[in-house]
Amino acid sequence: MHSLSAIDEFDIRAAFEVLDDGVQGRISLEDLRTLYIGLGFEPMRMTLEELGGKLVANLVDVEKNGVSIDTALLVLSR
């Protein structure tokens, strides 16, 4: 697992807040992919299934309830 710099974490949190338009503290898997690609993480052509495979949570729960900022930070630090 890679550690995120403070700048990386700040950028992720800022982008997460923009995508969390309902201010529920969660974003969809599609929004997580947008965040992943928008911040320049590699590979740029990651599918939703591949990104879902990086999640430690139950994928059905993620699709139903969304991704929290803590989960997003964990996934993007890998």
Automatic annotation (TrEMBL):
This is EF-hand domain-containing protein. GO terms for molecular function: calcium ion binding. InterPro entries: EF-hand-dom_pair, EF_hand_dom. It comes from the Eukaryota. Residues 7-42 form the EF-hand domain. Gene3D superfamilies: EF-hand (1.10.238.10).
